[in-house]
Design goal:
Number of strands: 15
Shape: globular
Structural class: alpha+beta
Helix content: 25-40%
Radius of gyration: 20 Å
Strand order of the largest sheet: 1-2-5-4-13
Strand content: 15-25%
Distance between the termini: 29 Å
Order of helices and strands: EEEHEEHEHEEEEHHHEEEHEEH
Largest sheet: 5 strands, antiparallel
Number of helices: 8
Length: about 350
């Protein structure tokens, strides 16, 4: 493991900040199970950190570390799925999924299998470690809690149960990606993601850059031009269909903000089952709350917790008959579950110090 002055560190490569070392756990799709929650809590206790921060990419950040993560702790993180087995690609496991994937009553299709396939592709292609550690892919199933308005480099938005609109980030920092006039079928989604990533890699090799500031996908697209970049992607694409990247009118595909829509109690697509959106004030999640929510999920849910890009968490798969008990247990942890609470409107930049 090595310390580097990176603007977006990963667990193998912490960065130097004003208050100590800073590192991040990439949580693909933002999904954690109880054993992973316990592992995170134990890690925090071992290194002497009181809380972890949920980032706006639904990852977890540890800051103010006195020293690097010990090799034996890294091994444990790998064993429970919290770090990549290949350190070269850990930094690009930014994979954002609708936090209500598979449970959203309005969802067109559950994109979790596709997200799993993409993660497997990344793990088996270490040459992609050259990509910026801010590189991120979003999967939006077209439900009520969408992430198409989040600033991912690539987003696939379901427009039917077998068709997806492709979005690419071509704007300024923080802008959402834009549609490029391409509609994909299900079996074309993984090949197009692979083709774009490989084309992006080639662009980085041409443009250069340093550890701290590698070219982003939008920089590579700007270098080639959208149409020419599309031709490069076409050459890498393993499917048979041809397509053309072009600027598309955004009015038809305007995204709506979902920052508070997931909070509170919501009925899932599964009959008699609910999910609870829970506020983490300023995205800070303490050891006791990590253990507590993990335990509640194991007993009253399906054993998993979902992080959101709005720096909160979702507890899914709670039976209606258990709602009152679960809500009381969450309150006992010092957490609130309503969108009208003042703390639900606050956002914090996990990359800066301060409360």
């Amino acid at each position: 493991m090595s310390v580097k002055r990176s603007i977006c560190p990963d667990i193998y490569h912490p960065a130097i900040a004003r208050d100590g070392l800073l590192t991040r756990l990439r949580i693909p799709g933002g999904v954690l199970n109880e054993s992973q929650c316990l592992e995170i809590a134990d890690l925090l206790e071992t290194i002497g950190i009181e809380y972890v921060q949920v980032t706006n990419r639904a990852n977890l950040q540890l800051r103010a570390l006195a020293q690097e993560i010990a090799p034996e702790l890294l091994t444990r993180l790998v064993d429970c799925g919290l770090a990549a087995t290949n350190s070269a690609v850990d930094g690009i496991r930014n994979m954002m999924m609708s936090p209500t994937a598979g449970i959203d009553a309005q969802e067109l299709v559950d994109l979790r299998p596709l997200a799993d396939d993409w993660l497997e592709y990344l793990n088996s292609h270490p040459e992609l470690g050259i990509l910026s550690t801010k590189f991120s892919v979003g999967f939006d199933g077209g439900g009520s809690v969408g992430i198409v308005d989040r600033p991912n480099d690539i987003t696939l938005l379901a427009i039917s149960d077998r068709e997806f609109r492709l979005y690419l980030n071509m704007g300024s920092r923080g802008d959402p990606p834009q549609p490029v006039g391409v509609i994909l079928f299900t079996d074309e989604c993984l090949p197009i993601l692979a083709a774009i990533a490989q084309s992006y890699r080639q662009g980085i090799e041409i443009l250069g850059g340093d550890v701290r500031r590698k070219p982003r996908l939008r920089d590579v697209i700007a270098h080639y031009g959208l149409a020419a970049f599309g031709e490069l992607v076409q050459r890498e694409f393993t499917g048979s269909r041809r397509f053309v990247f072009k600027n598309t009118d955004l009015d038809e595909h305007s995204a709506t903000a979902n920052q508070e829509r997931h909070l509170g109690v919501h009925q899932q697509r599964q009959t008699g089952i609910n999910y609870l959106g829970i506020v983490l004030p300023l995205g800070r999640w303490t050891i006791a709350q990590i253990k507590g929510l993990g335990s509640i999920s194991a007993r009253y849910g399906s054993g998993n917790i979902r992080l959101t890009p709005w720096q909160n968490v979702i507890l899914p798969d709670v039976k209606a008959i258990d709602l009152r008990i679960v809500q009381g247990l969450i309150t006992d942890l010092g957490l609130v579950q309503t969108a009208n609470h003042p703390s639900s409107l606050l956002r914090a930049c996990a990359g800066t110090t301060g409360w």
